[in-house]
Amino acid sequence: MVTTIDLRFQDRDNAIAAFVLKTKVGPVLIETGPHSCLPALEAGLRKIGYQLSDVQHVLLTHIHLDHAGAAWTFAQQGATIYVHPLGLPHLHNPEKLLTSAKRIYQDKMDSLWGDLRPIPIEKLRGLRTGERFAIGGLTFKALHTPGHAIHHIVYSMGDVAFTGDVAGVKIGETGPVVPPCPPPDINLQDWEKSIALLRKKMYSSLFLTHFGEVKKPKPHLRELEGRLHNWANWIKPYWERGIPIEEVLPVFIAYVEKSYDLLNMSDEDRLRYELANPPDMSVGGLYRYWSKKTGKAT
Ligand SMILES: [Zn+2]
User: Fold this and answer.
1) Low-confidence ranges of the chain (pLDDT < 50)
2) Ligand 1 center to residue 231 CA distance, Å?
3) How far is the CA of 179 from the centre of ligand 1 (A)?
4) pLDDT digit string (tens) for 12-48?
5) What pLDDT score was predicted for residue 106?
6) How far is the CA of 166 from the centre of ligand 1 (A)?
7) Domains parsed from the chain with CATH numbers
8) What is the strand order of the sheet 205-208 is part of?
């Protein structure tokens, strides 16, 4: 059984989740969330009878701070951190991750993400593409699923999957499915292939870090693919004309808001989407995608 813990990111519910599986060797934690959310994670674990130090296995879908920011604290308590080999060096030496995050978030860095420290190499376990591994009687398969991040893994477990960000963001029953598109790795072709892989697996449920269980993967993935293309193609002409990101941002926000209006989304829900998937990140990420694809700088 999967326990979903709401990490109450920025004091809001349903924006960032972590998942816990009970096994004979203690809890397996999938995603740690940001370091700033550790108290909520601790409270969630306590509710099901665990302490933070009981967690000896942490599975990360990718190393972005909203998914992996607290991994180092578990490593300090002896946990093994599972990650894609391309993400592993950045957890061992988070200098680069920290520098780029500080550049983006500036003085909000601490309140958003908290602290970030290196993880000793012996606590990091790189997973090969398609690798199967077992923990306490549960078997997982690591599916390499780039598109959102080059080092993204989906953890397949029986007929369910923990999809990180590659299966998009969907908050609440009626919320739209949106693709989080932050720099620097967005790649539409890779993402399409990853979606096709998930579709082929015919999962009964997907567990999204933003936020929770999706019981109808098929229409969900169709909506994700549609919106991914829609956003990328919407942004392309602005990029082609060399319009600065800060000028596109309000127009993009208005465009996204219009689709939210059609769904009669509440202000609370809009805020959750913004926290899980900041629009300025997506404009930046898609600009970078088009630049890389065409080999032209903006
Ligand atoms: Zn995320």
Assistant:
1) 298
2) 18
3) 10
4) 999 999 999 999 999 999 999 999 999 999 999 999 9
5) 87
6) 9
7) 2-222 (3.60.15.10), 227-294 (no CATH)
8) 132-135, 138-144, 153-157, 160-164, 205-208, 212-214
